[in-house]
Design goal:
The protein is about 40% helix and about 15% strand. With about 375 residues, the chain is of the alpha/beta class. It has an 8-stranded parallel barrel, surrounded by 6 helices. A 3-stranded antiparallel sheet has the order 5-6-11. The protein is globular.
Length: about 375
């Protein structure tokens, strides 16, 4: 209730401005040992049943911060202190770029949703690499989400992604190839297997030549056809990717509580939050049916409650991510979700989260 009232006050400020203000508070709060300890005490829910291992990394909890909040790796030391089990920085591009003109971030409060057309605004891979190098030891896993520089032509996309992979691969714990944002012209076309194959291979080669090989995942859109989802899944297995992040934001606008005129006035962009939840779950189920445990599946899109998180685990997700849920749920959202998830696992007799991954498919069979 208190956060609901606070949220109403925050919503009087333009979305992008309040994002920068809140992020500044987060960084300051977690910069000093006493306040960092207090933040962790209030927001984390340490529980051995939630600890899981995926693509060789230990995750203290399954819910991570999705890419988009910490675009430039400015908060790499903050997210574990706020109860997240991991985080993705970015999307980072090889070259610095300002993104799309403002306004470019919009709230749909009635839907607990957001529309953004940020356009990969970031300071570039070299700057992000410098910040990743300042990570404190013992923190949660950090992934680097990489995308295409806007001015780079599609035929040179593979080389562009490879630059970011070379710079960030040695410093991040895993790399996520983002070919699914709707806010960079032509980017989603790269999800077609004929374009995606050389791009992913270039990233895999770059990560390998940068030194220690790191897990590489690909992030896909909810708007892909089922056949295209199957094709990407098969390609990921063939190339030896570590996993798939499903899903990014959607370009669809159906079923919203926000008046149509308001939504149209906001314009183009990716819609996130509860409106994408059903399709994100559908994509997850299809992927797990296709690949089983051969890939790690990270589910993101519309997760707000512990019940929804548990449903994603049973549907095949080993890990979860949120961004919009964090905005609307507040600083104690991670604690509520993790505690609720642990309770549901124990109630159904599971000894560990990993034992529940994909269980809905076994039951259905």
């Amino acid at each position: 209730m208190a956060y609901s009232l606070f949220l109403r006050l925050l919503f009087l400020v333009p979305p992008e401005r309040i994002h920068h203000l809140v992020f500044t508070v987060i960084r300051l709060t977690t910069a000093f040992p006493p306040t960092r300890w207090l933040a962790h005490r209030l927001t984390a829910a340490p529980d051995p049943i939630l600890v899981t291992t995926a693509f060789g990394l230990r995750f203290p909890a399954p819910l991570g911060l999705a890419a988009g909040f910490d675009k430039d790796a400015a908060g790499v030391n903050a997210w574990g202190a706020l109860g997240f089990g991991f985080a993705e920085i970015g999307t980072v591009t090889a070259q610095a770029q300002p993104g799309n003109p403002a306004p470019r971030l919009f709230r749909l409060a009635a839907d607990h949703a957001l529309i953004n057309r940020m356009g990969f605004n970031n300071h570039g891979a070299a700057a992000a690499a410098g910040r990743l190098a300042t990570r404190r030891a013992g923190g949660v896993p950090i992934g680097a989400n990489i995308g295409k520089t806007k001015i780079v032509e599609p035929e040179h996309a593979a080389e562009d992604y490879a630059v970011s992979a070379r710079l960030l691969g040695p410093l991040a714990d895993f790399v996520v190839v983002n070919v699914s944002s709707p806010n960079t012209p032509g980017l989603r076309d790269l999800q077609a297997v004929r374009s995606l194959r050389p791009l992913l291979q270039a990233v895999l080669d770059s990560v390998a030549t940068a030194g220690e090989t790191k897990p590489v995942l690909v992030k896909i859109a909810p708007d892909l056809s089922d056949d295209d989802i199957d094709a990407v899944a098969d390609l990921a297995v063939e190339l030896g990717l570590a996993g798939i992040v499903a899903t990014n934001t959607t370009i669809r606008r159906d079923g919203l509580a926000t008046p149509t005129a308001e939504v149209e006035a906001m314009g183009a962009g990716g819609l996130s939050g509860p409106p994408v939840a059903d399709r994100s779950l559908e994509v997850l189920r299809r992927l797990y049916t296709r690949v089983g445990d051969r890939l790690t599946l990270i589910s993101v899109g519309g997760i707000e409650t512990a019940d929804q998180a548990y449903e994603r685990i049973l549907a095949g997700a080993s890990l979860l991510q949120g961004y919009t849920g964090f905005i609307y749920g507040g600083p104690f959202w991670t604690r509520r979700l993790h505690r609720g998830l642990a309770a549901r696992l124990r109630a159904d007799g599971y000894a560990a989260l990993a034992d529940a991954v994909g269980a809905a498919h076994t039951t259905a069979a």
